[in-house]
Give the backbone structure.
Amino acid sequence: MRKVCSSMSKQRYLLITLIILSCSLAAQNSWKTEFIASVGDKEPLWIGRSNLNAELYIKPNLALNFRTKLESSDALEREFPQKTWSNSALSIKYTQPLLTAEASYRSTLWGSSKALNLYPVDSPGLDFRRNAEHQSSLSLSSEFQKLRGSAFAIHRQLRARPVSYVYDWQTDTTISEVHAEKGLDNVYAGADAAYQIRPYLRAGAFVRHSEAHFDRADSYRMDAAGLNAELEHKLDSNTRILGHFVWTNRFNENLSPESRNLLQSGVRIQRTLLPGLNSFVSYQNNSCTDAGLDTLYLISNQIRAQIQYHFSYDPDKDSYLLAGAKFSKSNEASAFFSEAQSRIMNRLYARIGWKWLPELYVQYNGRLGYFFYGLGEMYLLYQKHEPFPLQTADFHYLGFGSSIYF
Amino acid sequence: MKALVWLCLLLLLTTCLVVACKQSTFTEYTIDRSSCNGCGECSRVCPNDAIYYDTLGKAVIDQSRCSKCAKCVAVCPNSAIY
């Protein structure tokens, strides 16, 4: 027992040392902490958030990246079905002229989560309370002259407690029973090969496989294979065009035969209009057809445009104006947004933002921040969230926070 | 020549805009990889555990699990789901 504890302590010390090292030696690290309280007619609610991002180059070709997020509130907030949530990711990347290898681990922890009907296929009267999810992945890619090959494998395990419900006729109540935690596994794997036909054009082929190891696993098995082409061309010093086309033949029990062949295409034009004024327009389309290629059906599409201007009076480029729109009628997922930040005094910055999702909500943001150059920032923030339909009451949030750069 | 290229691009974008106004015949949600920053908000609300992360840390929707509830569309801070 003592041996186990001692080994655990060593591991813990090693991990702490690693994190401290990564935090102290890396160049672009930040730690952000924020406290927000809801105000107005709604029941009072507080939310605490903390984000840590760290990157460390152990060697010029060996990089370690770590980021973690923690969010906690005293009640369930809006769409989020848990009071506490933590998301962390750790990755290590090794780069050589011919080979790149990356291993990563990502974990999500849920606290005081609601029981959800996680798996929609034939599980009436059975919900799952999510506790944690662990995802580990490994990827390898190699480039030799005009040929490029890559492969990946991802394993994901959800740790959840099944909750079953029994109706008691005598007392006219439903009794829930929480069962022991179980692990639900998913595996995703794939390989790609591509050839650089022209300096601006690359074409390739790929295979994908995914499966789940739990009840009715067949429903969640998907195999796919396809062809793709990518285009990247610089029209002039200010304009770049990117495009892609992917044909995927996929097979899964839950997919209808008409959606077996997936056709994805996209084009993106990036242009610097004036010094400090950057913009892009992109269009993406997903369509499908059956095995006989008879009729083409639209799945989803979007056209997106964005523009950003950095005001020349701020040499630190922290004063800017950003505006954008995403038009996606197909899945009612359109969005319009704008944000502006400006230096109003020496180190004092004000920011206002607006975001409108026509079918869902409109959101207004205000923020007043004081920068400590090279060290961090302290700020006050306000957010108003108006959900649609308008009968639902608005949410108002007031908060303060700080960011430290090290 | 340059004017012709720009004219073609304008024509392409107009066509895209017209096509973008169509309603879908099949519902599937997709993540715009260029806008996704892998923040995890979508998988946090997904009631079907249908979202995982690829080797670049970008979110991917497992279509065999997705119930098309669109909860991820509402919470994505970058409006990357369509």
Notes: The beta strands of chain B are 51-53, 59-61. Chain B has three helices and two strands. Chain B touches chain A through 49 residues (CB under 8 Å).
